[in-house]
Design brief:
Number of helices: 9
Number of domains: 1
Largest sheet: none
Radius of gyration: 16 Å
Structural class: mainly alpha
Number of strands: 0
Length: about 180
């Protein structure tokens, strides 16, 4: 049920992005920046960091998974709450540390700061909207990643996701307002 709800909501996001040239250009710009310069620097950080016992040893694989979508979800949520973006990277890193992502704390902080700089460099008109969309599109399995539903899909209801998909999300993930 979660998979179907997420697919329906994601399809609506694709439709919204596809018909809005400005939004499409900004999502593409952030995606290109994250997959280019930011990814290259993230790989350097991962190569310098020894693998954590019991986790993936290959730096390439350690930079995959839910790290990036979690980071964008945390950033969009924090930007909703934080007035001063200068303080935001530490909040993002703290949120990531609690989730136990494949990087150690110092690397998480470095990557969070790197991602904040990337978002600021690409000069997005609505960074929260763009980060939420990008997190949904990047997530390898949003149906099994409740943070994506809570911090990215539900906040887009009404803005980019319609009532039918919203109802499916509520049935699958529960009502976020009730929490």
């Amino acid at each position: 049920m979660k998979g179907a709800a997420v697919k329906k909501a994601t399809a609506e996001l694709v439709d919204v992005v596809a018909v809005d040239d400005r939004l499409l250009e900004q999502v593409a710009r952030l995606g290109e920046h994250l997959s280019g310069a930011v990814r290259a620097e993230a790989m350097e950080i991962a190569k310098k960091q020894p693998p954590v016992q019991g986790r993936e040893a290959d730096p390439e694989r350690r930079t995959l998974g839910h790290f990036w979508c979690s980071l964008l979800a945390e950033m969009s949520g924090a930007l909703d709450k934080v007035a001063d973006v200068g303080d935001a990277p530490l909040e993002f890193a703290e949120g990531l540390s609690e989730e136990g992502h494949p990087f150690l704390d110092e690397s998480q902080k470095d990557l969070a700061v790197l991602c904040v700089k990337a978002v600021l460099l690409v000069n997005l008109s609505d960074p929260i909207l763009i980060m939420r969309i990008m997190a949904v599109f990047m997530c390898p399995d949003p149906a099994r990643h409740p943070q994506i539903a809570k911090q990215c899909l539900f906040p887009l209801v009404g803005e980019a996701i319609g009532g039918d998909a919203a109802a499916s999300l509520r049935r699958a993930f529960g009502d976020p307002e009730a929490e």
